[in-house]
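dumping this here so i dont lose it
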């Protein structure tokens, strides 16, 4: 690859960082350090972790340089430090945090100048710029985690977030689409960036099914609540008049009936599907239908699938991204939400969380056997 593509990488890294900083721009240091929920990190932890991950991979691993700040990395290890403990850690804060983020970036760009990122590069991490794609995806994925927390910050005002959250209309069309029985290719192809859990690409056999063309709306979810006494989505409250308000970010906005429902748990998603006489799709069914689905990118969509390794899985470049989470406790979500950067959500991208969680921007789409 040429200097040109290195310039493109540097520019995309700068864009991701601009987005990160724009998200926290309305906040003061006290808000960055505050713990809002035991299942989410203080924003200062996410920021330091984004920079420390960059130091670890782009500066230490690729650049061969020593850690800048002793064993600081220990406190930013996501596995070693459960979210509920992160507010108490001796992490970087305030001006020191900002200086570290800028310092790491400067060094990372310095290292980028010297490396071979061609498809034939000797170092597998560098081939086709893999490690840089991983770093970009990582920062943008943490932007979404930050946006989850920002829903809990009363009075948070951001034109960027308002525009991201603006509903995109779903085109009218048939209620369901039918997918024929047959063999379907699942997973990421050889070329291009993907996480280890999306490989290897393999064939699955599916029986015929119907899948909803659009995700479940707030209007449909309200019916479920009123008919079946279902749990409210996170941030909803009764308005006292028989309706519902969304209280995210400390606002009180009437629930928009036409928008896809978000902040529902996997348990409630499954219960909704059963109530509607349907079921959740498996992740295979979701992916096989993806090229024909509308409304992708509004909400992560719960599937019925456990987060498991595909056949021939090999951890790359580290087992703590995917492998340590494989098992029946974690369920796969597909698609992407309004808070997901479009470059993150490939058709093969697999998100996962515990069934009871609803701090993520999670909704659903129903399926049934054809
Ligand atoms: C893919 C969203 C489940 O947040 O645990 C960020 C993404 N991995 N840093 C997570 C991730 C490492 C991951 N999810
Ligand atoms: Fe991370």
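and the seq i came up w/
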């Amino acid at each position: 690859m040429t200097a040109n593509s290195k310039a493109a990488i540097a520019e995309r890294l700068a864009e991701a960082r601009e987005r990160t900083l724009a998200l926290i721009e309305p906040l003061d240091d006290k808000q960055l350090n505050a713990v809002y929920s035991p299942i989410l990190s203080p924003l200062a932890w996410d920021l330091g972790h984004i920079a420390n991950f960059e130091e670890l991979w782009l500066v230490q691993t690729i650049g061969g340089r020593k850690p800048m700040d002793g064993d600081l990395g220990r406190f930013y290890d996501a596995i070693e430090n459960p979210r509920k403990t992160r507010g108490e850690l001796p992490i970087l804060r305030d001006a020191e945090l900002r200086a570290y983020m800028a310092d790491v970036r400067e060094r990372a760009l310095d290292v980028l100048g010297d490396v071979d990122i061609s498809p034939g590069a000797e170092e597998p991490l560098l081939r086709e710029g893999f490690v840089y794609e991983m770093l970009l995806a990582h920062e943008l994925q943490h932007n979404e985690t930050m946006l989850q927390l920002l829903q809990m910050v009363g009075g948070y005002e951001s034109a960027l977030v308002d525009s991201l959250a603006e509903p995109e209309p779903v085109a009218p069309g048939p209620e369901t689409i039918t997918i024929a029985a047959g063999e379907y290719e699942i997973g990421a192809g050889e070329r291009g960036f993907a996480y280890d859990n999306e490989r290897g690409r393999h064939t699955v056999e599916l029986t015929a099914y119907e899948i909803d063309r659009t995700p479940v709306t707030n209007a449909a979810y309200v019916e479920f609540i009123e008919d079946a006494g279902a749990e409210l989505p996170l941030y909803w409250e009764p308005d006292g008049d028989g309706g519902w308000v969304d209280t995210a970010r400390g606002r009180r906005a009437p629930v928009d009936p036409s928008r896809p429902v978000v902040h529902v748990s996997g348990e409630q998603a499954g219960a909704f599907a059963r109530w509607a006489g349907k079921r959740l799709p498996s992740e295979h069914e979701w992916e096989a239908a993806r090229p024909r689905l509308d409304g992708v990118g509004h909400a992560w969509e719960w599937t019925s699938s456990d987060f498991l390794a595909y056949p021939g899985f090999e951890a790359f470049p580290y087992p703590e991204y995917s492998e340590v989470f494989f098992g029946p406790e974690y369920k796969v979500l597909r698609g992407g939400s309004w808070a997901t950067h479009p470059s993150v959500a490939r058709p093969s991208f697999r998100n996962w969380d515990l069934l009871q969680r609803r701090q993520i921007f999670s909704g659903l789409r129903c399926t049934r056997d054809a």
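The first helix runs from residue 3 to 24.
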